[in-house]
Amino acid sequence: MKTHLLKLLLLATTMALFSLPACGERALLYDVSFSSSRITPNADHDNDIVRIQYRLSRRAALSIYFLDAAGNRYTFRSKEPRAPSGDDPYSVYFSGVVDGYTLPGESLDGFSVTHRMLPDGAYTWVVEATDESGQTEQQRGTLVIADADRALPELLNFSVTPPVFTPNRDGISDRARMNVFVSKDHDSLTVYLLGEDGIRYHVAEDERSPSLPGEAGLHTFDYDAGVDLGAEPPPDGHYVVWVEAQDAVGQHTVATTSLTIENGGVPKAYILNGEVEWSASSILLGETIYFTLTVENDSATPLRTSGPPPGTVYGNEQNYATVGETIQSGVFRVAIHCENALVNYPWRWAIGDESVLIESADGYRYLPPFTRATVSGGIRFDSVMGARNPQYCWAGLIHEDVEIAQVNDRIDPVFLFIQVP
Ligand SMILES: [Ca+2]
Ligand SMILES: [Ca+2]
């Protein structure tokens, strides 16, 4: 009798041993739990998230996904490599947001969704682990999602103008403007250029954007490629421009367009050696004083210029505007100023002549990169023009509506005396 009982016990023990997974190995995946069986993911801080915990006895690829009543599968984690769990279980919070999906018959208007809230409903959750030998274990349970905030932060009419821009402070297409309409209040909205080398260039939102940061509505971005602050812009080339938005429940949307950078760079122009050759320091009333200097383009970006051409002689009562060559933003010009002049640098000339300037397709003229040009011109004094005689006259190199760099201002003055008979 006793022997029979012992045999039965032995048999039971043996069976129990054999019923363990993988012939006596510990379960690969164990202690799987969801802290709640129902969440209301709507960012009201009430029951918005569930904590998922699990343990792994061996290195494994870990997946967590959800099955709806129709058997559609929604991915939260997909075959992510995991080391064996240590003292603490793995722990991850789930807020109802899974990898982007589209509903049957649904089409999104010019954007895509990378992370999206599940629709309300009852789901089967599956936590699944596959070890290096290919053995898979999974556990399942039920999670109900109710009152989910499913409105997407839609990204509508994302655009960039102009599609080709030249960030080089020449006043032509120096800025690119990005517009996007976001349909929902959001936690973040970012715009960046992505180069072929994988480098991202962040674009800041315009301070005059019609909508406050985080608010639904039209958002505008103004991009100078950093040139306004003197930084070199991204290299010339084609870029994908990305906009990404994320809402309070963690849904994430993206949209893209493209932008081409041409002739980008920070212009660097100098009067060579800060040197001006003056024809005289004393002239008779009615005579002309001439100057000659050399302009150096010490940058990889072309320097835009405008007329009148070198060699032009101004009457002292004239100025650049009276000869029809008004200021144009971004243009470089050589200029002369005398103390008695009423206008700042009244006499201005192109920074080169036709032998050195190149003309763009749209008719603008440029001094090419790393090029020098000799510029001369004159001013005929028909009057003394003011009280001071002699007066100081000097040269400058002006970047119109941008700056007169310290290094290019009040260059090589001449103390000019005009002899009045
Ligand atoms: Ca809630
Ligand atoms: Ca430009």
Ligands bound to this protein structure: calcium ion
Helix percentage: under 10%
Give the name of the CATH superfamily of the largest domain.
Immunoglobulins
According to CATH, what is the topology of the largest domain? Immunoglobulin-like
Number of domains: 3
Write down the CATH class of the largest domain: Mainly Beta
Averaged pLDDT, please?
A: 93
Shape: elongated
Distance between the termini: 149 Å
Count of strand segments: 31
Strand content: 35-45%
Radius of gyration: 37 Å
Protein model, in words:
With 421 residues, this protein is mainly beta. It has three domains: 25-96 and 117-145, Sandwich (Immunoglobulin-like); 155-261, Immunoglobulin-like; 269-419, Immunoglobulin-like, CATH 2.60.40. The protein is built from one helix and 31 strands. Strands 7, 8, 12, 14, 15, 17 and 18 form a seven-stranded mixed β-sheet that branches. It is elongated. Residues 5-20 have low confidence and may be disordered. Bound molecules: calcium ion (CA) (2 copies). The site of one calcium ion has 6 residues, from loops.
